[in-house]
Amino acid sequence: MAELMAVTFEEHGALHYLDPDGVEYAVGDWVLYPTDDGPVVARCVWAPRRSAGSRTAVPVCLGRASEDDVRRDAEHRRQRVRIRDVAAALIARQGLPMKIVGTDFVSRPTDGVDKLSVVYFTAPGRVDFRTLVGELARALGSRVDLRQVSPRDAARMSGSVGNCGRDLCCANFLSDDPPVTSRHASDQGLAANPLQIAGACGRLLCCLAFEHPLYADFRSRAPAVGATVLTEEGPGRVVAHAALKDAVTVRTAGGVITCPLLALRSVRQQPVQAEGPS
What we know:
There is one protein chain. The strands form 3 sheets. This protein has a 5-stranded antiparallel β-sheet with strand order 11-10-9-8-12, with no helix packed on it. The protein has helices at residues 67-94, 130-140, 151-158, 182-187, 194-197, 207-210, 212-221; strands at residues 2-8, 16-18, 30-33, 40-51, 99-107, 115-122, 143-148, 227-231, 234-242, 247-252, 255-260, 266-271. Helices cover 26% and strands 29% of the residues. By secondary structure, the chain is of the alpha+beta class. It contains 7 helices and 12 strands. Residues 268-278 have low confidence and may be disordered. Helix 1 (67-94) crosses helix 2 (130-140).
């Protein structure tokens, strides 16, 4: 089994996995994560551990970050704040319909000259920002790249709290956007109400997709709504599912009860008239 470790670039940020390459790292260690623009400083949040399955696409950790690496990372963070402030002021002055959701600063240590300031933004449509690029480049003293991102990417970069009261999944542990459809909501018994099944990005909740296998497994084992079952309190009719409890709600002659699937002694798959009062 391969070994994996998890790191983050921001506190409570999304998890990124690395192959420790046989080196022992502890939680809190600063390490180097390989990117196309050179090594980036990250912090270990999961010490290396053995993982079942193959993860051939996981990059290899480049070792522990030096004090110079950590100082350079701190300087880049300050530059990102400056980029946001300067860009926000110019966007407001030009009246452009753009919202900044993130910034980045790239300085390749090989020459120390090639600097790139990146601004990620959302907009209702196409934006003519040619004038903005020139003014930003002069104000920041670097090359500038403006990148329009999707609502999902914007939510991931900005971070927020979901309907469940926890940090957004996309900003915490999801590395890819899972395909989500209204069928996922239907299979989980959720009403097609956008206010209930939409996330902070305005799109369908990501959790509908990655939680769907749990509901699919439950539906394959549970009697259908309307089916007659035999419980410890006698026969009754299934009136609702409770997938998270691995149980069903049953109306019997004595009333409505919640019955675990393991407690059902027999099931007749064809729905019949319920016994007892309705």
